[in-house]
Design goal:
heterodimer, A: alpha/beta, Dimethylsulfoxide Reductase, domain 2, Barwin-like endoglucanases, seven-stranded mixed beta sheet, B: alpha+beta, Alpha-Beta Plaits, three-stranded mixed beta sheet, two-stranded antiparallel ribbon, 7 helices, elongated
Chain lengths: ~900, ~240
Amino acid sequence: MTHQPKLDLSPEVSEEIRKTTCYMCACRCGINVHLKEGRVSYIEGNRDHPINKGVLCAKGASGIMQVTAPSRLRAPLRRVGPRGSGAFEEITWEEALQTAVDWMKPLREAAPEKLAFFTGRDQSQSFTGWWAQAFGTPNYAAHGGFCSVNMAAGGIYTIGGAFWEFGQPDWERTKLFILFGVAEDHDSNPIKIGLGKLKARGARVIGVNPIRTGYNAVADDWYGITPGTDGLLILSLIHCLLEAGKVDLTYLAQFTNAPLLVVEEGPEKGLILRNAESQPFVIDRRTGMPAPWDGKGVEPDLGAVWQGNRTVFQHMAERYLSPDHAPEAVADRCGIPAARIRGLAAELARVAFDEAIELPQPWTDFRGNAHASMPGRPVSFHAMRGISAHANGFQTARALHLLQIVLGTVEVPGGYRLKPPYPKPMEAHPTPHFVTAPGKPLSGPHLGYVRGPENLALKEDGSPARIDKAFTWENPFSAHGLMHMLIPNAHAGDPYRIDTLFLYMANMAWNSSMNSAKVMEMLTDRGEDGEYVIPRIIYSDAYASEMVAYADLILPDTTYLERHDCISLLDRPISEPDAAGDSIRWPVVEPDRDVRPFQSVLLDLGARLGLAPMVNADGSPKYADYADYIVNHIRRPGVGPLIGFRGDGTAEGRGEANPDQLARYIENGGFYQAHVPEEGAFYKPWNTAYQDWAVATSFYESPQPYLFSIWSEPMRKFQMAAEGLGPYRPPEHLRDQLRQAMDPLPSWYSPYPEDGYKVHALTQRPMDMYHSWGSQNAWLRQIRGRNYLYVPTKIWVAEGFREGDYARVTSANGEIVVPVAHMAALNENTVWTWNAIGKRKAAWALDEGASEATTGFLLNHLISELRPGPGRVANSDPVTGQAAWFDLRVKIERVGPRDRAEPAFPPIPRVVPMGRERA
Amino acid sequence: MTQLPASTDKKLGLVVDLDTCVGCQACVTACKGWNDQGYGVPLSDQDPYGADPSGTFLNRVHSYAVQPAEGAAQTVTFPRSCLHCEDAPCVTVCPTGASYKRSEDGIVLVNEDACIGCGLCAWACPYGARELDLAAGVMKKCTLCVDRIYNENLPEEDREPACVRTCPTGARHFGDFADPQSKVSRLSAERGGYALMPEMGTKPVNRYLPPRKKDRPQEASLLAPLLDIKATGFAGWLDRILGKI
């Protein structure tokens, strides 16, 4: 027997634990940050936190390498050489802020739209939008336009909520979960926790994704669909369900606009029929006569015909029962045999109807009808970018919600559940505001939900009011703006020239832009007068990303452990279906560099510019910093950024500002939850108990019950305009597009031009990297420092690929030469790679020889920001302007072994020294 | 030559559920984070921002393609760490006695003070579960977080390995395989838990739960149409579904 050493089995873990919110991705998990001698020693998940319940992903646990990354910017910088040359000088904050004010103030006084302020992946949009509104520029948005606006807007326009922050499956009760497309990034840990719950009780998981990795790898069944055809598959499932009568008629009649009547003929053809009081109505089965849509005891008749006008239900059923939607008609295009589609429809129907559940919870609906229980249909779905980053993504998102609706699974036990402040109908959101006046704030918030052509952001001459052309005939429902079009449009002077680009946390000179190489040229391009076409660029980031080299003024931000943040119910909260939730970040360590939190800098700039909400009557700054704003800002009477510990510390939702609020959040682990009453837990859009609670907790000013929109009247208004009906006329060249895309019923159209490129090319985000941030992380880059183009067997064999080979990949926009690897579990016409592994040489404080910069690559170079054809039409969804990243199609050919990818850009000038040792 | 204990009171180890593991790598960095500041020397990284970074990890996740005889190809992710074998060849091969198996709980550990970094144990381990730390020159391996599982400075619920505590899907479980009623013993029994490469004769303690059978559509009769829509037209279908005929 060997001698066993005596071990200290109870070492001191740390000196202090500070509980804050992670920001290694957008998921916002609670973390326990352990400190030794004032330095971060270990990070783990916070067990009490509603988002992650103690667990933490690979990124979160590597946060310690992020707060010590050598890529951290160290001080404000001013460009002193040509743009892109990397010639910067360090300046003081006073100089930096004064420079920014000197640039911005004249713009505000003459033409506020000359400042374009766009933020990337930050989560303080209610704050940054408020600042831009006070400045008075219409040119503000965050990154949703190149992320997932189709998912958000498709949901809001259909069911008054969408996935992720808006809602989630009922993980506790669902028996069949179907996942469409890549979702490993959003939202990260909650879906993993949910999948774990399903697996633990043997519930069935089905993946619909061209690529079988991650969540699809553990799915019990896999549909390796052809990219961009998800909508076709979904509508075919609806066909099968209708054909067999397996739809929830009671649900459709009570909770959706299926029983409303559609005007059959005349100038209002296709609008919802209204009575003399301009109210939609239904036909009551009991009397055969019109009755209020929200009348007590009314039994709406789905089969009614009133004065020649039929119900939405009949239009819907007739549309999807058409043989065009039969599995046999779509199988080839979807790449899924008809029998498999019919099998999936049968499985959906069996679980929804034969395995229905019921909670013994009485509730009262908005009509005043009392219900003894809560019936549930235990089928649920999730989707994010996989279906939404196509030019038909909005309609596909609508189709997915329609599938949930006909199965009766939204807001029922076992189905899909909304999270406060959702449900929230489109009508409860603002419309876009865009009218500018020198020296004046904007009249209201920039981003909103368009009801009809009358809400478009057009100037009197019909030209776009916004630099990104959001809310125009090109993409009427662009509720998140089009950040991906900002630089191309500013460079083209289309629709007009701007002076200053002000960007926060968005790597637009690299992985966040389509056509990245061209965008770099746009950023450095000079006009005939020798001046930059885009005259001034101010950029704020915490790290030396590829974008930094292209700015004229750098405002260095803090890392996520060094600042205050507010994850607010006013924008993107951390709610759960059973509780509204918000949270904070707070400085758990002090910065060791001359950097400042961007939000505090923005308040400082606002005060220096004299923006009314940011100054006192005597002109002094109203807020000392962002923490001061979080506590003391009042958005509406009694409503501020945080709902917890208001007033005397006991008020929830509404109440006066409480100076101790942040201290109370910190004591509480950095978050707050307001719990939904049990009676209000399901059927929320129609549930009186929920609606009353939502008013009390400040989400509405009055109850907002509504019907789900199977038939979308706002869409029909645009389609009508394209047909020559009504008072508004779109430009001639957009009429066909609008007729097709603005179909009031969920529809499918091919997003692909017929250009000879046949192989689909996709990216996925790994679970262990968040966009470009992971490359600077000493641990994460060891896990995934290389990317390959994964090639399916059919193409691998046909091209004669061998291990170690490279391929030339060509699109209509250009070509790249990249390393390939074989992958069998992949749609046979699809290639793919990991998103944003490729880096520009010397960016992120990496060695120029880093694998990310030599063999790593981006597909972005192959993607044009414009659609082919005349004019400058964005390569985006024609409904929302969502960047159509996943519509890329390519040709691929073997070039044999190589040792580096192309295009190879010269090293980016360093603004921080190369990293050597890790902390 | 170092001796193994004749038997151990407990057999502490992990169950890793391959039906549930999505390959997210959370366990990899949670392990790195804890053990970088925990038992023994830190887990060093070489050239962390350079062309060819490498470092010491006690747990790594691999991904494999699987092509069944019938049906679609599959992807299996596979976390790999020390299996705390009962007949651990890494212990018996150690020339200094640095590698040992604890008699009380069966954890295989390295006494870093006695380790000369000769690497024989890594060579002897058929699972590739040991890594020589290049900065310290000592052998590193999974400790089952021996400085967590008994640590009285941690809340009781946290006295489990960092990889288990962090796993977002709950695919990792920790417990005593000597107790047939323990959670890990029962899980392994119910789900067909298996030892890795038993033919090596190392008698691993850890168990892997195999992926459930995939791509087998559930036996559901296909949906029967309500009626022949071609014959009745849409009106006939509508009457039928609304119960009017």
